[in-house]
Amino acid sequence: MKSADFFDVETYPTLKFVSTGVSGNNEEFELTGDLTIRDQTHPVTLKVESEGVAVDPFGNTRAAFSGKTTISRKQWGLTWNAALEAGGVLVSDKVVIEIDAAFVKSN
Predict the structure, then answer these.
(1) Which range scores top for mean pLDDT: 4-18, 45-59, 67-81, 88-102?
(2) Which fold has domain 16-104?
(3) Within 13 A of 18's CA, how many CA atoms are on the CB side?
(4) pLDDT digits (tens, 9 = 90+) for 37-51
(5) Beta strands in 1-107, from DSSP E residues, in sequence order
(6) CA distance 14 to 93
(7) pTM score, two decimals?
(8) Number of Cβ within a 10 Å radius of residue 31
(9) 78: burial class by Cβ within 10 Å (0-12, 13-18, 19+)?
(10) Per-domain boundaries in the chain
């Protein structure tokens, strides 16, 4: 996945997501933004769920979230593939992105 056929991490070492909006409620919401892969930017929407808020053993308030979206890798120029002898192709166009994030409230 790190090779030039895919993410080409030597040339493009980072993926970037910049939020442009949020809608929904405190438990489930949609986070929209611009996703950059290999210097190509396209809008995406993540379905996000709150995993809860808790105070850790050090007295810090933490909030956890999980998010998920599905993209077409071809939209970002990730087109390498190989035909299979039995038919079809080796690599799916569909890529599922899952994010787990935790935030700490600053004091």
Answers:
(1) 45-59
(2) Lipocalin (2.40.128)
(3) 6
(4) 999 999 999 999 999
(5) 16-24, 28-37, 40-55, 61-72, 94-104
(6) 21
(7) 0.79
(8) 20
(9) buried
(10) 16-104
